[in-house]
Every structure is written in structure tokens, then in C-alpha cells.
Amino acid sequence: MTNWKALAAAAEPPVPEQLLPDVVPALEKLEAALRLLEGAIPLDTLLWSGPEGIGPEDEA
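-> C-alpha cells emitted (60 positions)
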């Protein structure tokens, strides 16, 4: 699992320590749910980069 407290401390601006008890459990649950979905994706699945015309290379 990701060390959310370390990431929060390293963020700019850092996430206030008093918010972590509310935020970290939700992030851990979300990460666990997404890992289950990630495991169901076949290894040969092509990555989707989104609709054309919305990437950073398209910004003027």
C-alpha cells in the first residue's frame, strides 16, 4: 500500500496533519478497490490516452 502520510507531507503545500485521519482511510479503501480492478485487466490490454485533442501536447 502507498504511504499516504509521507505523500501528504511531501506535497506542496503539505496536507495539514489534522486532516490525515479523515483522508488516509478513504485513500486506502480507494487504492485497494482500484488494485482489484487493475488485477482484472489483461496484460496485453492497450493503454487509453483519452480523446484526441485534450493532452498536454495539444495545449498552445
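The helical segments are 4-10, 20-39.
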